[in-house]
Amino acid sequence: MTRAWVVHPDIKSDPNRRDARMALEEAVSLAHALPGLEIVGSEVVPLPRPHAGALFGTGKIAELKDRFHDAEVELVLVDGPVSPVQQRNLEKEWKVKLLDRTGLILEIFSDRAATREGVLQVEMAALSYQRTRLVRAWTHLERQRGGLGFVGGPGETQIEADRRAIDEQMVRLRRQLDKVVRTRELHRKARAKVPYPIVALVGYTNAGKSTLFNRLTGAEVMAKDMLFATLDPTMRAVRLPTGADVILSDTVGFISDLPTQLVAAFRATLEEVLAADVIVHVRDISHPESEAQAEDVNAILAELGLDEETPRLELWNKLDRLDPEGAEAVALRAERDEAVFAVSALTGAGLDGFLEAVTAALGEETRQDRVRLGFGAGRRRAWLFEKGLVEAETQDEDGYLLTVKWSAADRARFDSME
C-alpha cells in the first residue's frame, strides 16, 4: 500500500471555488477509488492566490514537508490543477511523488477500463496529459542527439524527441479508436433497425445509475458506493413494467472539473447519450452538493452538444439515505415538477411513476386489445409471442382469440404485416 495524503488548495481569489470541506471529501473519495492507496491524512490549505513556481508559499511548503515526513507519506494528491513546473518543484522539495486532480482521475480510469474502447480512450487522454508535462524536469531531457553527417546541426533535444514519440503514439491510437467508433456506429445502426428506443442514464459519479440499471434489467453491473464504479458503457434491452421495450444505457459518471482530455477522449462513449430518445438524469439527492453536481452534469451535456429537444427526466435517488422527514420533504418538492421523481433505486420506492413517465416520454403508452387470427396467420401470431405482447390466448373452430397489451407503434407494425 502506498501512503498518500490529500491536499485541497482553497484559493480565495477563485470566484468559482467550491465549498472547501465538500471538495476535500470528494477528493478523498476519489483517492479511495484507486486501489493500493492508504490515505493517512487530508487537509484544506487556504491560499490567497496560487504561487506560480510552487503553488504554495515557502512557509506552507516547509510546514507540509515536516508533516509528510512524520507521516512517512509517499504520494501527495493535490485536488486541483498543478502546472508541470509546480509539480517538479514540489516533488523536489517534499521528496514525494505528486499527482494533481487530472492525474488522479486518469489513474482511476486506467485502472477501471475494461473494454478495448475504454482502454484506448484512457491511453489517448493520458498521452495528451503527459505531453503537457514535458518540461525540463529530468536531466535526460537536456541532452541533445547529434545530427546526421557533418552538417546535421545540433540535432533535436530529448524533450522534442519525447514529444514526437508521444505524437506518433497518439496518431496510432486515434486510428485504432476510429475503428472502434466505426464499429459502435454499425452497432447503433443495427439497433436502429430494431425499433427499440434508447433510454440513457446520466449523472454525477456515484449517483446510483448502476444500481438503478441492475434493478430495471436484472443485470449484474458493478454497483459500489465508490466514485467511477462504472467506466465502460453497458446496454441492455429491457421491457419496462408498463409494457414498453427499450434499450437501457448505463454511462460513465460525470464529475466537476472533468479533465478536458477526458471529455474529448470519452466523446465516443458518450455518443450513446447523444443518440438517446430519453435522457434520465440520476441525482444523489442525499448529497449536500446535489444542486452543484446537477449543474456540472448539465454543463457537460451542453458541451457534448445534446439536443435541447430530447426529453429529459430527473431522478432524485437515494431517498433511503434520508430520514423520514427529509424524504417526505424531497418527495413533496419532486411532485411540483412532472419531470422529477423522488426514488430509491436500492429499495425500488417511487420507480413505478418514473417508469410510466419514461413510457409516456417515448410515446409508447400501452393498452389492452383483443385480436382474432385465423389458423393461417401463423407468422403474425408468432410475431406477437416473440414480442411478448400476448397476455392470454384461447382457441376455437375459427382460429385464435388473443388478449394483447401493446403500444400504438406495435399495433401499426402488426397491421402492416397483413
Automatic annotation (TrEMBL):
Q: Where is this protein chiefly located? A: cytoplasm
Q: Domain named Hflx-type G: which ranges?
A: 197-366
**Which molecular-function annotations from GO does this UniProt entry contain?**
GTP binding; GTPase activity; metal ion binding; ribosome binding
Positions contributing to GTP binding = 203-210, 228-232, 250-253, 317-320, 344-346
Alphabetically sorted, this entry's keywords are:
Cytoplasm, GTP-binding, Magnesium, Metal-binding, Nucleotide-binding
Which Gene Ontology cellular component terms are annotated? cytoplasm
UniProt xrefs under InterPro entries: G_HFLX_dom (IPR030394), GTP-bd (IPR006073), GTP-bd_M (IPR032305), GTPase_HflX (IPR016496), GTPase_HflX_N (IPR025121), GTPase_HflX_N_sf (IPR042108), HflX_C (IPR045498), P-loop_NTPase (IPR027417)
Instruction: From the Swiss-Prot or TrEMBL record, state where the protein is found.
Output: Cytoplasm
* Subunit (UniProt): Monomer. Associates with the 50S ribosomal subunit.
User: Which HAMAP family would you find in this protein's record?
Assistant: GTPase_HflX
What does this protein's UniProt record list under function? GTPase that associates with the 50S ribosomal subunit and may have a role during protein synthesis or ribosome biogenesis.
Q: What is this protein called?
A: GTPase HflX
Species for this entry: Ponticoccus litoralis
Its taxonomic placement starts with: Bacteria, Pseudomonadati, Pseudomonadota, Alphaproteobacteria, Rhodobacterales
